[in-house]
Amino acid sequence: CSAPGLLSTDAPNILTIGDSISMCGFGYGHFVNDMLVMQTRGRLAGYSSAGGQMASTKDSAKKMANCIGNSTGTLKGRPFSVITYNAGLHDCDTAERVHADAYRLNLKAGLEVLKAAAHAVAVTTTTPFDINVQKPDADAGINMSCVLEYNVIAKEVAAEVGASVVDLYGYVEEFCQQGPGRPNAKWPPLLPSSSGFGGNYTACAVQS
């Protein structure tokens, strides 16, 4: 994740950090940017890209420092109005697995870095994902029980550090009218056509 370019001096600077769902081109990044510019003259100062998505929370504090342009520790003040951060799917993936205790510590460390650089920080919950839902001991893939567990942890950590929560998981579940435990439930991926809805929800949360 690279630091954003020149920040605005006359409009809010919004930074979105996370895995692929927050990316522009695939996720909701462009939608958030367009809605903020249109509605509040806000500016999406940066977002994760194909070469800079955050993946898991491993080395979270270092990644966050790079993303906000503070790798040298010399960033002054709070140049960002709002920073949103989502992480969890990669932490739940058995190929990259970060266990729950480490996920909690990593997330808290990263959020503390972000809070020093922004007037408001929000944790975005991980979206539903249906790879190997019925195979908790699968060699690869994401188990839904992990997604649910880590979303609970994310909310707890957000409360500990004084961050807000953008419950994108809850929004997507309600939007799709499906969820864990429901017969034949399937979670469609949030591709560009449907990411607009996630973007709208995120943009509204940023404004509030």
Ordered list of secondary-structure elements with their pairings:
Elements lengths: L12 E5 L11 H12 L2 E5 L12 H8 L12 E6 L3 H4 L7 H16 L2 E7 L19 H18 L2 E3 L1 H9 L15 H16 L1
Parallel strand pairs: 1-2, 1-3, 3-4, 4-5
Structure, described:
The protein is an alpha/beta fold. It is 40% helix and 12% strand. The protein is built from seven helices and five strands. A five-stranded parallel sheet has the order 2-1-3-4-5, sandwiched between helices. Helix 1 (29-40) crosses helix 7, helix 2 (60-67) packs parallel to helix 4 (100-115) and helix 4 (100-115) packs parallel to helix 5 (144-161). The longest helix is centred in the last third of the chain and has 18 residues, at 144-161. Mean pLDDT is 75; it is low at 47-52 and 181-194.
Distance between the termini: 26 Å
Oligomer: single chain
Task: Note the beta-strand portion.
Answer: 5-15%
| Radius of gyration from CA coordinates | 16 Å
Instruction: Report the principal-axis shape.
Output: globular
Quickly count the helices.
7
Strand order of the largest sheet: 2-1-3-4-5
The major β-sheet equals: 5 strands, parallel
- Unreliable stretches, pLDDT < 50, 5 or more residues? 47-52, 181-194
Percentage of helical residues?
A: 25-40%
Secondary-structure element series: EHEHEHHEHEHH
